[in-house]
Fold this protein.
Amino acid sequence: MPTGSVTSLIFGALMIHGLAPGPLFIKNSPDIFWGLLGSMAIGNAMLLILNLPLIGLWIRVLQVPYYFLFPLIILFSIIGAYTAAGNTGDVVIVIIFGVVGYLMKKFAYEPAPMVLGLVIGPLLETAIRRSLIMSKGHVAIFFQRPIAAFFMGAALLMLLSPLLTRRRIGHEIIEKLEEQ
């Protein structure tokens, strides 16, 4: 079970590529496991070698005002998107996702659940479709087994809990106002 959003994203990426994360991952895909572990070790060593001598430069970069740094970041992102494949459609996608990311940050949305939904969503949709085909379209298949019924109930409770807490908090506020 993934313990956080980053682990969930890694699990989702592995599942998209047809790899089963879990205890048998090392046994079933040792080349990918050791390649991943080796790349992390090499990356950390490169970071250490590059960052120690360049720490003064990074401090100066942090002192550059944001209003000057922001357009440069956008410019380099657009140049990178275009040069990767020479396609202007990639630039449009970068701009759209940049605007979506800005709005998510402005309205305090967490990006990890959205990315996780985009990664695992198609797999979940395929599994639901397969289950409904097996049951000839009956939704009761999701409630027939005790474990499945428990998880469906827990998911329903989690979906409804914000509504219930807001309503309870609203009643508490109204009662305090009436007391005054």
